[in-house]
């Protein structure tokens, strides 16, 4: 399904898009308020940009295969990092920022590992070849399928503007993939 064995093109895409204007904030809102896995949101965009449409069954498989890693490794690291940032006063005058930066690095490495797991599984998943379709439309369909698979249906209205921000940034990163301009 994907080319470039040995290198994780998905990770490279994620690094390019994450710090685009409004993308980081949008992804964190999707994660913190709606329980969406940022790596899977990014995967939906990246695959759509590659001309691949995912159905709900492959997305559910990816969710199932990464949930333990996310819940037992990534989320505790994120919680620890955020707690350290918020509650630095509990440490008095001790230099806790160095430790927090180490935790942040570990969290990023855990995120990369999850993306490596996802990337490795792509060649075994069924996706629809849609290289002739509108890439931004595929990104949108993939993300809406993810939302459906995770049960965030009631949040679609709130999520849609956030998704459109990610699609716009993804289109820019992937070299001019155009959206249909709709925001709703």
Give short descriptive properties of this protein.
single chain; 184 residues; mainly alpha; 7 helices; 2 strands; disordered C terminus
What's the topology here?
Elements lengths: L8 H10 L4 H12 L3 H12 L2 E3 L1 H31 L10 H26 L4 E3 L5 H16 L5 H18 L11
Antiparallel strand pairs: 1-2
Helix pairs in contact: 2-7, 3-6, 3-7, 4-5, 4-6, 6-7
Describe the structure.
The protein has one domain. Helices cover 68% and strands 3% of the residues. The longest helix has 31 residues. Helix 4 runs antiparallel to helix 5. It is mainly alpha-helical and 184 residues long. The C terminus is likely disordered. It has a two-stranded antiparallel sheet with strand order 1-2. It contains seven helices and two strands; from the N terminus they run H-H-H-E-H-H-E-H-H.
Q: How many DSSP E strands?
A: 2
Specify Rg, calculated over alpha carbons.
17 Å
Strand content: under 5%
How many helical elements? Answer: 7
> Which strands sit side by side, in order, in the main sheet?
1-2
Shape: globular
Major beta-sheet overview = 2 strands, antiparallel
Cα(first) to Cα(last) distance is: 30 Å
Helix content: 55-70%
Number of domains: 1
The class by helix and strand makeup works out as mainly alpha
Average pLDDT level: 83
User: How would you name the oligomeric state of the polypeptide chains in this document?
Assistant: single chain
| SSE order, one letter for each helix or strand | HHHEHHEHH
Poorly predicted tracts of residues: 177-184
């Amino acid at each position: 399904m994907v080319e470039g064995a040995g290198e994780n093109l998905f990770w490279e895409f994620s690094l390019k898009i994450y710090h685009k204007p409004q993308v980081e904030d949008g992804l964190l809102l999707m994660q913190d308020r709606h329980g969406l896995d940022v790596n899977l949101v990014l995967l939906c965009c990246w695959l759509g940009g590659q001309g691949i449409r995912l159905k709900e069954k492959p997305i559910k498989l990816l969710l199932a295969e990464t949930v333990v890693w996310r819940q037992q490794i990534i989320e505790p690291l994120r919680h620890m990092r955020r707690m350290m940032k918020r509650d630095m006063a509990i440490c008095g005058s001790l230099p806790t920022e160095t430790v927090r930066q180490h935790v942040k690095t570990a969290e990023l490495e855990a995120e990369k590992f999850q993306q490596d797991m996802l990337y490795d599984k792509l060649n075994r998943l069924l996706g629809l070849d849609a290289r002739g379709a509108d890439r931004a439309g595929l990104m949108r369909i993939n993300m809406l399928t993810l939302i459906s698979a995770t049960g965030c249906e009631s949040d679609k209205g709130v999520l849609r503007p956030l998704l459109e921000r990610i699609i716009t940034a993804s289109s820019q990163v992937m070299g001019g993939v155009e959206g249909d301009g709709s925001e709703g």
